[in-house]
Amino acid sequence: MLVADPKPSLLERLFSEHRTALHAFFRRRIRSPVDASDLAQEVYVRMLRIKDQEAIRNPVPYLYTVANNLVKEHAVLDQRRASCIDIDDAPAQESLETLPAFDTEIDARQRAQRLDVVLNQLPPKCRAAVVLRYTHELSFREIGEHLSVSPQMARKYVVQGLAHCRRRMVRLG
Amino acid sequence: MNSNEEQIRAAIAEQASEWLLAHDEGPLKVRDCAALTAWLKSSPVHIEEFLGVAVLARDMRELGADPEFSVDRVVAHARSEAASAVRPLWPRVIAPVRDISSRRWVPAIASLAAVVLVSLGLFSLWNAGFFAPALAPGEAAERYQTRHGEQLSLRLTDNSVLHLNTDSAVSIRYGKTERVVTLLSGEADFEVTHDPGRVFRVLAGSAEVVAIGTKFDVRLQDASTVVTVVEGRVTVELSQGWGKPATQSNAKLTPLTLMLGANQQVSVSEGVWPATPAAVDAQHATAWLHRQIVFDQAPLERVAAEFSRYSPKPFEITTPALRTLQISGVFSTNDTDVFIAFLRSLKGVRVEVTATRIRVSQRSAAALPDYT
Fold first, then answer.
1. CA A22/CA A15 separation, integer angstroms
2. A131/B69 CB distance under 8 A
3. How far off is chain B from A171, nearest CA to CA, in Å?
4. Which residues of A touch B81 (CB under 8 A)?
5. How near does any CA of chain B get to the CA of A158, in Å?
6. Peptide bond preceding B44: is omega within 30 degrees of 0, i.e. cis?
7. Domain boundaries, position A122
8. pTM value?
9. Do the chains contact at A58 and B54, CB–CB below 8 Å?
10. Which residue of A has its CA nearest to B61?
11. Are residue A39 and residue A85 in the same domain, yes or no?
12. Tens of pLDDT along A73-124?
């Protein structure tokens, strides 16, 4: 990588485009615990390192794995650095299996409370659609029948509902 | 995070949700995997939002134990809102529509032919087409309307879905050989179930639209009717009026019949027909279904008119030069305040909210900054 290349690779181009953000990230890197945007930055850098010919077969498990490993790495770093270890943290992470607990700074109960708040801010049909989809694992057809809309509209409600919840969660901080 | 950045974030969160749903629906095709990888690789924000929605979806699985989120409770909640003609956007100004049918002047027996059910889910197995006589002008029709700021969704007996926007009215007549919806005012969006035996026809102003299993939007404006296709195909022609006999399933194509496909829009008005269809982003035209309005470099005059369709007070632009000010953005139809705040953030723009109007004017004698 250190050998000068007259033609900048895609990686380098992308890297230079995001240089400021990445520098900020590495400065913060020392800090703990892992915050969501830091983690995303680091996952991003790792994804960029993969050459295009080794195209990622299934990006989602890959993403989860990288994010999980990073959370673990950070946890190890934190334990080495910190004099006081949060004992609640490690078992919580074990049980997550596929998804990173990058929002470890707030506990599960608090997260559930916030979820409750943001869900109740959604338009009722959106709220029903996301709950039916994710809590009760109904199909879009079934959701559509419950809400008297087409399966396509049910799917739209889920997409919108999920995105709204996500942004409102962020705003709750 | 400023509102512009938040808007971009919200759009990315939506893309992330789309991807998560696509991933959950089954193995992604090789091409989709590549597209998702490319999308994730294009910005750390994409990764952050994807992980964010994924965590949210996971956390929602844990809600099952909470009775508040049982299937029955959430459905009942959604339906109780639907029953009151969809949540009024301005509850203090508008009461829910109570009398939405026009049965008073229709003979009781004829009203039996009316086949629309409010989206309460009171589903009828009764086949209207079986009993209903052939349609004749002025025949029994079910009528639905929304007031200013209201929206209403209806499921018809054939499973087609009709969404009614603010200040709109339709009458619906289902017969043996055709399904006819007349848009009397405002705007409606249709998701039509294909039925080769019964044409789905929409009459709106001077336009007549025939759908073949599709999704489209029809809006009545002062001098024209605007038809936008979201999915599938429709034919559009100048309306022949009420007395026209029902035609068979395949509409006869004449040189005056236009065929419209997805993301095409045509404005129909007498005297300027046939018109040329324009390519549009149909998602913009139907953003109202999600209580959004989307503008891409639209003049303030049009934006303000659009907002006035939903807001409790109409917008009024008092400085003519401001009428052509270009506006881009995604706004909520529920939230006039956000739009007012947005306008106030523009240099030289002044917004006064009076008892009856929202007045937009130029701040001072200073020259208007160049927004182009």
1. 8
2. yes
3. 9
4. 123-125
5. 8
6. no
7. 108-172
8. 0.42
9. no
10. A135
11. yes
12. 766 665 555 444 343 444 433 333 445 444 444 456 677 778 888 898 888 8
